[in-house]
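Example 722.
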Amino acid sequence: MPSPARLQAMHTILERQPVPVEPAASLESLWASDVFGLETMKSALPKDVFKSIQRSIRLGSKLDLGVSDTVAQAMKEWACARGALYYAHVFYPLTNLTAEKHDGFISPQSDGKAIAEFSGKLLVQGEPDGSSFPNGGLRTTFEARGYTAWDVTSPAWLMRTANGVTLCIPTVFVSWTGEALDKKTPLLRSNAVMNRQAQRLLHLLGETDIAPVNSSCGAEQEYFLIDAALGALRPDLQLAGRTLFGAPPAKGQQFDDHYFGAIPDRVQVFMQDVELQLYRLGIPAKTRHNEVAPGQFEIAPYFEAANVATDHQQLIMTVLKATAKRHGLTCLLHEKPFAGVNGSGKHVNWSIGNATQGNLLDPGKTPHANLQFLLFCAAVIRGVHRYGPLMRAAIATASNDHRLGANEAPPAIISVYLGSQLEDVFNQIKSGKLEGSAENALMSLGVDTLPDLNRDPGDRNRTSPFAFTGNRFEFRAVGSGQSVAGPLVVLNTILADSLGWISDQLDDQLASGASLEEAAFAVLKRTMDDHGAVVFGGDGYSSEWHRVAVEERGLENLRTSADALPVLERMEIRELFERQGVLTPLELESRFEVYTEQYILAIEVEARLALRMARTQIQPAVTTFLQRLASSIREQEALGLVTDRSVIERVAHLHQQLTQRSTELEAALQGAPHEVHGHLRHCADTLLPLMGQLRETVDGLEVLLDDDLWPLPTYQELLFVR
Ligand code: ADP
Ligand code: MG
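Predicted structure in complex with adenosine-5'-diphosphate:
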């Protein structure tokens, strides 16, 4: 029988009643009903004001502050009519979380009455006391002013909680000297430089009508659901979001019976609740299904402009967590909540395009479009080859390290998967000629000979961290708990850099008299010669690839965040961000500081927690068990029965090991070096292995102790009881 606490949790679970979800009248009435988007603005604003706002949103032109009072007024009326008493500037600090500064609309009047008030000034700029947000030394506390500024390109929305309705305004968060303290500012900047460089290349290719180019993102979110009553009994899930101990259950995911299986009833209701809320928020949640591990699920919205998708992604995480609570569940967004079962990722599907040329990563049907496509695709390949380590750094967190390179997740080596058809085209380019064309000599070097590419080349390679999937790239190494902003900033920035390089090369070739086709082919060939090593279509999980990638292809295998984060300090990375105007050296430095601090903190918190759980929960249970065993043996001996001492001996051995390993971990925690690089290494090379050893001991004890003594809900209970 389980321990009393676990038993009580089970009773709670058995008695749970489904939480009713209010059915929607219709999708039309629900869709985006809580969003102050273009549609709403069109009917709420005078024509000229609407046009001005629309220009800022569509063309990225500077916001006309003259219209802000009118917009604020309309926004306030819209929100108040729906019950809002408060408004909040929402921003995205460097923690992967969402932050809000709430204010009341209320304005007391001299006659003792109160009215709701909201001005353009309050809409456009806020001043939260952001001094406690991590900023990596960008602001010392005596000048701890931070400003939020309205991002007009992402719509405002209403947040409904038990406390009422709040108008949420998406903002950037910057220091009083203008440095980015958040994840949105560089995302907007990276999109702008990508747009500039894409325009330049399109011009070179002869386009004259070119709409602003925007990046798009569709992020697939994986997550675990466990019952909240069981989760509450695990300090590790509460504090670290993952289990620090836990022996594998007799049945794990071996049967693959969860994947795409029937969704459990309680989870169905939860998902429906989540989706209804997302629809109100104008978030196009599309697919939902079980994932590989028991208790694991996925939600994927339809793709949107990267900036909006990023805000929506943050909202999805918030809604998932809050809704789970209402249904007596706990939603785990950690990348590896359970050892031995699959972890959770967030596949970031990314493409770029505009209203005139369409998706620039779509191979299309015509040769001309193929030429354009090949150059943009080559730009991506070059970017990944030059800056793969930066991509690795962009997904470097203590939690994602548990997943990368495990048997179910992409390796930490960043390569590009193109699919066999496209890989073949690029290989032909590399070899200097494209096969299958006999028309004429010039064309055999040119683009008319390129085959039509299928939209979806069919084959998928799940072992690649970065894969072309028909008309977009899918960055699969991103962690489930991360903001997608960081990865998107890197993708946009390295693409901008490569597009610039390609345009320079084309310019040179054209200046020396080459035709556009000849010039393009030469640039494509050079790109593949220099950067083709990053293209890989084989099994990314294999040990052979780990060897070949590093030894023969010269790619880096940055196994842990302790290896990956220092990439942010490299000169070429600093130059890249500075050249592109995405992050100043100071801003980059502050990011390095914040991310390393978070990595160190995450691991040290876990280490302290493991130690405390071992001493205050496991140790006492083991002692009781040993006493129980000893007295039982004494009784058996008194009766002259044959006694089996094997269990007591094994437990006694593990008990001693528990003490010893706890002591070692404690000493290591105290012996952390102060210098940041040493500290990083200490976490990765000393603390984590010691925690692993301690875990081994505890998990060994779990399968030997009497069940009624085991204090922690087991993997079986956590993964299978719902
Ligand atoms: P998977 O096979 O990887 O599970 P899904 O079809 O479930 O793929 O999800 C694909 C995701 O990619 C969705 O969010 C979808 O909207 C997004 N997506 C599709 N086309 C594009 C594109 N051109 N740019 C960005 N994202 C896209
Ligand atoms: Mg996917």
